[in-house]
């Protein structure tokens, strides 16, 4: 079986072409992922900013709720990406079997999840108090391309093919703000916003399909290949459950706000979460780059420590910036209509910093196929939903979510320490 990783250069990165444009040479490196994901996150944030300004707090709260549910519904995307990246990085000799399984399962899962999400659109309409059924239907349709992108990106991430992966990430953010913003300019409604999101979601899929075209496993499928494929499917299910718990913990507070606060306060909370998502997404490239190393024996511990140090420092800087420059931060949230939340923006930045650390710890658990990670994060989700339902103000809900996040982070750090000690004891025993 021929491994497609052989196409990459030393360390798995595609070799730069001496005569190629400087930008392409940069995107072929791991630094290119940082640039591409930064551009993606800026575009995603810009769409939220445009929607917040054009819709106002009440309607934007509904759009923010739909985007949060899209994150939850796309959890299989994250599971497929994590599984493909981990398996290919840890066992490159099985890349053909892994790739074929992931891409086939990706399309099947996307179609099934999309159908289920569309069928559940009346419940979404009721839960988020939308203006009509159409926005909920469009939300369900968005699940299909978002899920497909996950499987494609996972193959490229595991092979450390940074250039095509960078191109996929670049195609997420800018089209969303252009198409979504254009639709909102034509008609400032919840349905228009989701039409733009749906149209933009297909572009990275088209790029991924083109990059991975014609790549198939060998005609002769061995018993080993079949065993690998069964294990990949099992791991995808386990990873999806762990990431579902994380996405729920990081996204469902806006749904809680929509149900326990009035429309104006829920909109203010959703506006504050723009800062949270900015701080969470800003360093997301670190997880993408470090995950293959976290999945490789001998590199895992150092990769986790580097990630924790980087994310903690960046999170603290963002909190300080949101506190000292709250006037500037308010401009990026949505302007004077959200002035009532200005003094609390540092708290929302703190939520983003905690979630970025929590995300790294979740992926560290997935890299070792740990079972306890998903249990601890799930307990956090239950605690957030139960305690958040008692909140009566924007500040009360934000503080409640922050306390839950801190507890979960502490538990996951303790779990990492325990795994490290157990691994050291195992090595000493073997020696």
Please render the helix and strand layout as text:
Blueprint: H1 22-27, H2 30-73, H3 75-90, H4 95-119, H5 121-128, H6 134-158, H7 162-186, H8 190-211, H9 223-251, H10 253-260, H11 263-281, H12 284-294, H13 300-324, H14 326-333, H15 345-367, H16 372-388, H17 394-430
Helix pairs in contact: 2-6, 2-7, 2-9, 2-11, 2-12, 3-4, 3-6, 3-9, 4-6, 4-9, 5-6, 6-7, 6-8, 7-8, 9-15, 9-16, 10-11, 11-15, 12-13, 12-15, 13-14, 13-15, 15-16, 15-17, 16-17
Describe the structure.
- This protein has 431 residues and is mostly helical.
- The chain is 81% helix and 0% strand.
- The chain contains 17 helices and no strands.
- Helix 3 (75-90) runs antiparallel to helix 4 and helix 4 (95-119) runs antiparallel to helix 6 (134-158).
- It is globular, with a radius of gyration of 21 Å.
- Residues 1-20 and 425-431 have low confidence and may be disordered.
Quick overview of this protein structure:
This protein has 431 residues and is an all-alpha fold. It is 81% helix and 0% strand. The two termini are 34 Å apart.
Outline the low-pLDDT stretches: 1-20, 425-431
Give me the Rg, rounded.
Answer: 21 Å
β-strand amount? under 5%
- The residue fraction in helices comes out at over 70%
Please report the number of helical segments: 17
The major β-sheet equals:
none
- What value does the average pLDDT take? 81
SS-derived structural category: mainly alpha
Write the element-wise H/E pattern from the N-terminal end onward.
HHHHHHHHHHHHHHHHH
Describe the global form: globular
Number of strands: 0
How many angstroms does the end-to-end distance come to?
A: 34 Å
């Amino acid at each position: 079986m021929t491994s497609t990783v052989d196409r990459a250069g030393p360390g798995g990165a595609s070799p730069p072409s001496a005569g190629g444009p400087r930008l392409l040479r940069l995107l072929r490196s791991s630094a290119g992922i940082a640039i591409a994901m930064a551009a993606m996150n800026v575009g995603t944030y810009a769409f939220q900013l445009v929607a917040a300004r054009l819709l106002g707090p009440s309607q934007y709260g509904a759009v923010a709720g739909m985007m949060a549910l899209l994150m939850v519904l796309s959890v299989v995307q994250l599971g497929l990406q994590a599984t493909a990246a981990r398996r290919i990085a840890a066992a490159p000799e099985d890349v053909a079997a892994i790739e074929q399984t992931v891409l086939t399962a990706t399309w099947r899962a996307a179609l099934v999840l999309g159908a289920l999400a569309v069928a559940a659109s009346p419940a979404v309409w009721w839960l988020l108090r939308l203006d009509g059924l159409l926005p909920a239907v469009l939300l369900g349709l968005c699940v299909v391309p978002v899920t497909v992108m996950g499987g494609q990106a996972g193959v490229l991430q595991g092979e450390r093919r940074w250039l095509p992966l960078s191109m996929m990430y670049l195609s997420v953010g800018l089209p969303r703000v252009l198409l979504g913003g254009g639709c909102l300019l034509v008609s400032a409604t919840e349905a228009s916003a989701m039409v733009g999101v749906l149209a933009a979601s297909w572009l990275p899929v088209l790029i991924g399909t083109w990059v991975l075209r014609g790549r198939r496993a060998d005609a002769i499928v061995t018993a080993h290949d079949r065993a690998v494929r069964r294990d990949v499917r099992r791991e995808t299910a386990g990873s999806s459950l762990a990431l579902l718990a994380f996405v729920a913990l990081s996204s469902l507070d806006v749904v809680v706000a929509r149900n326990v606060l009035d429309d104006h306060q829920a909109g203010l909370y959703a506006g504050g979460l723009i800062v949270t998502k900015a701080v969470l997404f800003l360093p997301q490239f670190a997880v993408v780059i470090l995950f293959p190393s976290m999945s490789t024996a001998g590199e895992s511990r150092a990769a986790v420590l580097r990630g924790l140090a980087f994310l903690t420092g960046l999170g603290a800087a963002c909190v300080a910036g949101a506190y000292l420059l709250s006037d500037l931060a308010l401009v990026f949230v949505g302007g004077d209509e959200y002035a009532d939340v200005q003094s609390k923006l540092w708290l929302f930045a703190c939520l983003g910093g905690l979630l970025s650390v929590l995300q790294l710890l979740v992926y560290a658990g997935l890299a070792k196929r740990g079972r306890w990670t998903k249990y601890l994060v799930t307990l956090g989700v239950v605690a957030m939903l139960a305690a958040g339902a008692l909140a009566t103000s924007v500040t009360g809900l934000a503080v409640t979510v922050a306390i839950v996040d801190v507890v979960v982070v502490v538990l996951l750090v303790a779990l990492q320490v325990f795994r490290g000690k157990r691994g050291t004891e195992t090595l000493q025993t073997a020696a």
